[in-house]
Amino acid sequence: MNKSIFNTAVAVVVAAVFCVGCGGGGSSKPASLTGQWVEVTSYNTEMELFSDGTAVYKAKGLTISGKWSVVDKRFVVSVSAGVGPEVSEASDYKISGYELTLVDNNKDTSIYVRKEKLEEFKEKQAAEKATRIAATKREVEKTPTFTDSRDGKIYKRTAIGEQVWMSENLNYAEEGSKCYGSSDNNCAKYGRLYNWATALKACPAGFHLPSDDEWKTLENTVGGSSTAGTKLKSTSGWNNNGNGTDEFGFTALPVGGGDSGGSFDDTGIYGLWWSATEDDAKYAWSRHMTYNYAFVNRKAYNKTTVLLSVRCVQN
C-alpha cells in the first residue's frame, strides 16, 4: 500500500473513491504477494497481505484493516478508518526477488521488502552505498578541481559521502550579484552574493544549487545538523576563534550577507548559503553557520531583497 492512501484513511479526508481497473477483468490474490512487507524509505510502514484477500496496514503507531487483490494486473488495496467511505487505490506493481515496487496513479513510487528479508536488504543497501562512496572519493581524488568554462575560474571540489560539493563559494559574476562591501578583494576571498532567482541559475555546468533535502543529506552525512557547523567551517577566519575543523574539506567561510539596497553585514560572524527550495512565494530556505555555535541552522530569507552566498553541488 502506498503511504498516501494510509494517510488519507487515517485522516478520513476523502474527496473521492477511486479504483482504476476495478471494473471487470477478474481479480486474484497471487501467492507471491502474500506475507509481511516493510516500506523501506523510513521503515515505519508495514503491510501484511493474507491469501483470503484481507490485509493489515501499520504506520505511525496505528493499525488499519483492509482488503487487497490484483485486478487487471494492478495491485488494488482498500482501507477504511472505521468512519466514512472506504478508500481504494490501484498501483502498478513489480516483484524482483524479495522486493516489491508499487507505482500509484500519481506516479509516486513505494518500495517494500519482505519483513523476513529486511536485514539482508539493509546489508545489501549498506554495501552498495559504501561502493558508491568509494567510487565518488576516487573520482574526486583523481580530479580535485574543475574549471568554470564561462570565465575560466578554477574551483576545488570535495567528496562528502555520495555527494560532491564545491569547496569554495561561487564567484561567477552573474548579473545582479555583488561582492561583500562592493570590494573585488572580498569576491576573490569569499565568492559573490546573490539573490535567490540569480542563485538558481548561477552554478556552472555539471553543478546546481542544492535543494533543502541535499543540504539535509550533507548535514546527516557529517553527523547531524547539531555539530555539522564545527565540522564544515574553515579552520580560520571566524570571529573570536570560532573556527571549525574542516574535516570534510567543505571550508565554509564567514562572508556574512547583504541586501539589494547595498548594505552588507556580519562578515566574520556568519556564513549564509541559499538552497533551491522555496518556503513560500516570498521566501526560500537557506543554511547558515555562525562563529559561536556548532550547529548548521535552517532559515527562510526573502528571495528578492537578501543576498547570500552560493555553494554548488555536483549533478
Structural topology:
Elements: H1 3-11, E1 27-28, E2 35-39, E3 45-49, E4 54-59, E5 62-71, E6 74-79, E7 87-96, E8 99-103, E9 109-114, H2 118-142, E10 145-147, E11 154-160, E12 163-166, H3 184-190, H4 196-202, E13 207-208, H5 212-221, H6 225-232, E14 257-259, E15 264-265, E16 270-278, E17 283-290, E18 297-302, E19 306-307, E20 313-314
Antiparallel strand pairs: 1-5, 2-3, 2-9, 3-4, 4-5, 5-6, 6-7, 7-8, 8-9, 10-11, 11-12, 13-20, 14-15, 14-19, 16-17, 17-18
Name the strands of the widest sheet in spatial order.
2-3-4-5-6-7-8-9
Number of strands: 20
Compute the number of structural domains: 2
- Proportion of residues in β-strands: 25-35%
Features:
eight-stranded antiparallel beta barrel, single chain, three-stranded antiparallel β-sheet, 315 residues, 6 helices, Lipocalin
